[in-house]
Amino acid sequence: MTATKPKIAIVDDDRDVREALQDAFCDAGFQVKLAANGLRLVSALQVDRPDVILLDVMMSWIDGFELCRALKSNPEFRDIPVVFLSGRTTPGDIATGLSCGAVDYFRKPVDVEALIERVQLLVGAAEASA
Hints:
By secondary structure, this protein is an alpha/beta fold. It has one domain: Rossmann fold (3-Layer(aba) Sandwich), CATH 3.40.50.2300. It is built from five helices and five strands, in the order E-H-E-H-E-H-E-H-E-H. The chain has a five-stranded parallel beta sheet with strand order 2-1-3-4-5, with helices on both faces. Helix 3 (64-73) links the parallel strand 3 (52-56) and strand 4 (82-86). The chain starts with 6 loop residues before the first strand and ends with a helix.
């Protein structure tokens, strides 16, 4: 493993969710950046590129599906894995999330241990291919 901690961006308009995930990922050895909406994520990406983005679907300004499509259409950011976290859990919602470029889709309330495990695999795969 590299000397630097892997970076994760958590984008969710629910502060309680953001803070709970921040605590869990910090405990698991990640650097965590928080954003309340997609606009804040976009401005943060220019400064501090995360290894993985956790993204809520239902947010103000732009929904997670649209934000994921925008990230995946940008050559600078398209290779950052996106994992959706959402209360929208119909098969259609999940299919939409995956079709717009996400690598996974977790239902809320989130199984935090499973989510951390998945993100660790994504970061490990990114390091292996670097």
